[in-house]
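Q: I'm writing a short explainer about Response regulator receiver protein for a general audience and would like to include a description of its predicted shape. Could you first generate the structure from this sequence?
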Amino acid sequence: MIKVGIVEDNKTVREGFETLLNRTPGFQCVCTCGTVAEALKKIPKAQPDVVLMDIQLPDSTGVECTAKLKEQMPLVHIVIVTVYEDSDRIFQALRAGACGYLLKRAQPEKVIAAIQKRMKAECQ
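A: Of course. Here's the predicted structure. Afterward I'll give you a sentence or two in plain language.
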């Protein structure tokens, strides 16, 4: 079972990811968060294998949250989820410890495949 946490401020997107994960065999959404503050509190307790991280959040950035989570949980795999194809932001996220990125408009099978790929990759 792959345990996944979601950090996304858009409730519709967050719930869509949660539904997708919980309906996909071998996946379980263990935590959803709408802000960085909430993520830093809930994710270490939930111990997900992978975190889907929005790059722009209301109280900070996904880049900042990624860096802080990687300090606390060096083995967690973080995949940035963004509407932007902004290579600077994506590069910053990768430097902060993210393993990859997805566009929010990605098809559901691409989301699942990206999570599976991250679980097989070493990206500490």
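A: For your explainer, you could say: The first strand starts at residue 2 and ends at 7.
Q: Perfect, that's easy to follow.
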